[in-house]
Amino acid sequence: MTLLQRAVLNLVRRLSNPAVDLAVLPLLRRQLRDAGDVRALAGHPAWQARWSAAQEAPRLLPPEEAWTLLLALAQDRERNVREGAAYGLGELLARWPQGLPRYQALLADPEAPVAQKRALLHAGVVLWRRHPQQVERAVALLQVAGQQPPQDPFRTLGSHLLAVELARDHPEVARRLQEEWQVSDNAHLRYHGARAQGQTAQEAQATGPPGFPEEWQSTAEIPVPGNLMDRVVGQERAVEIVRLAARQHRFVLMVGEPGTGKSMLAQAMTQFLPRDRLEDVLLQPNPERPITPRVERLPGGQGPLRVAQIQAARRQAQRTVDFLWWVLFLGLGGAGVVLSLTQEGWIYPVVTGLILLGLLLVRTRLRPAGRWDAPKLLVHHPPEGGAPFVDATGFHAGALLGDVRHDPFQSGGRETAPHQLVEAGAIHLAHGGVLFIDEVSTLSMESQQQLLTAIQEKQLPIVGRSPGSSGSMVRTEPVPCDFVLVLAGNMEDVERMHPALRSRIRGYGYEIVTASAMDDTPANRRQLAQFVAQEVVKDGKIPHFSRAAVEAVIQEAARRGDGPGRLSLRLRELGGLVRAAGDLAVTQGAALVQPEHVEAALAITRSLEEQLAQDPANASRNPTDPERGSNSR
């Protein structure tokens, strides 16, 4: 590694400033001359060095060595290095066409590290965007992801990249792929081909759930939709209204029995909210009135960069002050010593000592840089993360509306700046996304009134809510909280809602009653089979179900339905049955869950009421009888 490279790395590590990184990193890349430089930087502790090595490895290293190095960097702890490795893998494939089978084999390997497979997917995007003439090679790579088994999380991402992202740059290639997918033997590709042609999820599911195979023997063959909205079972009307509410930014009140998918519907709404409108919120100190911090709004993702820039500027200012102080201290001290040694009289040593003592006292009073002036990142929503979903069920006062922490050191130079004590509430964290509150009646009337103000004004100041706290006098400027409000509960909860809040939702949103059962039809039975597959994948600790075991679960859903020819949609209870049957299969070492496991699970998942009803001795006893414990023993 050259002296210039070391100097550049020391500079960027010491400053830790994004602006410096943008200016210096291209210079560092241009200084890489041979393979030795790449190897040295790949193991350097500065992430900027490893990023540069990942960028230049395809150019300076032999293909085999570059492949090994980039796969290692794809698992780096620093996100920038992982992104650089994905870029490097795309460039390597452009220079090394013989390596395509190796890329495809790793992407199809279920045991491959997640970070490496993610880097390979993005390498395909890099390849088609930087080398349009090699788009066919990129398509061949990404199709491998689209053809993976249902439980592979990269299957949906790979199909999405081909069906949606590719269409922006190469519409003709994307159209050809979509036509091929619609007649493909792979059920998942058929589904994505239909969606890419503009069909709705319901239209694409005309023959069953996404890519539902006609003949299947286990839930491992049933594709699990990547879209949350497509995972909702038996709530077609609710899905239609919720999708409309999300696109039009309307409020929703959902009423229904527990376990019918209300929270999943609310979470799925975030997929339809725009990402380009997300914002970061900073709290800035207010020198004129410290107990009223100022609010600054920035585009999503730019908050940390702004804070880092201000902190770097403060550190630089503090270093300048320190340098000037030391120059003054040493200069005056040296001059005093020289005069004391060359001139007679006691006055020179005394004056010199007093000056140096005064400078030391000044030094102790210098405020540390950034302690009061640095802003606080209150809300952070990077666009790549999507619209936020905040579940505020059970939150009260400060947790819902924001609060100001107590400062035990309130004076004497140890106090914390008021804006650093402020904590965002759920309504502020949900800015630009969805705020979900189940069992809304648990909120106090005062909290409901404040919630009503927030959705009307789309902003709400954060105040100290504890009377005995040092922060009780702090009140920020209005903090933005523009969100889609989704409330859920039963009719008793609705009756205890604040009348004005209920009126606001009825005037600016929709009210939905979720179904508790659906007709017993072949299509709905396929939906329940898809639900079982979803639960297996979601749990991750139980084996897949055989077709006969799924039929046993469906029979239980029919027994729990609200009448003949009806299937229960209380899916949380059915999910408990699925997990219990899977646990029994695991203890017996079975490769698939069989009907006997489901039957055994029914016996151990009986409700308390069923257990009491089936045991007359227990049922006849008074549960509050103090002698019951000794009798049962």
* The first-level CATH class name of the largest domain: Mainly Alpha
User: How many helices?
Assistant: 30
CATH architecture name of the largest domain: Alpha Horseshoe
Helix content: 55-70%
Q: Radius of gyration over alpha carbons?
A: 32 Å
Strand tally is 14
Largest sheet: 5 strands, parallel
How many structural domains?
Answer: 4
What structural category do the secondary elements indicate? Answer: alpha/beta
N-to-C span: 77 Å
Strand order of the largest sheet: 5-8-11-1-12
- The pLDDT mean sits at 81
* CATH fold assignment of the largest domain: Leucine-rich Repeat Variant
Task: Based on Cα principal axes, name the global outline.
Answer: globular
- Low-pLDDT segments, ≥5 res: 205-209, 623-633
Descriptive account of the structure:
The chain folds into four domains: 3-213, Alpha Horseshoe (Leucine-rich Repeat Variant), CATH 1.25.10; 272-299 and 380-513, 3-Layer(aba) Sandwich (Rossmann fold), CATH 3.40.50; 307-365; 517-618, Helicase, Ruva Protein, domain 3 (Orthogonal Bundle), CATH 1.10.8.60. The termini are far apart. A five-stranded parallel sheet has the order 5-8-11-1-12. Strands 3-2-4 form a three-stranded antiparallel sheet, covered by helices on one side. A two-stranded antiparallel ribbon has the order 6-7. It is 55% helix and 9% strand. It is globular and about 115 Å long. It has 633 residues and is α/β, with parallel strands linked by helices. Mean pLDDT is 81; it is low at 205-209 and 623-633. The longest helix has 40 residues, at 303-342.
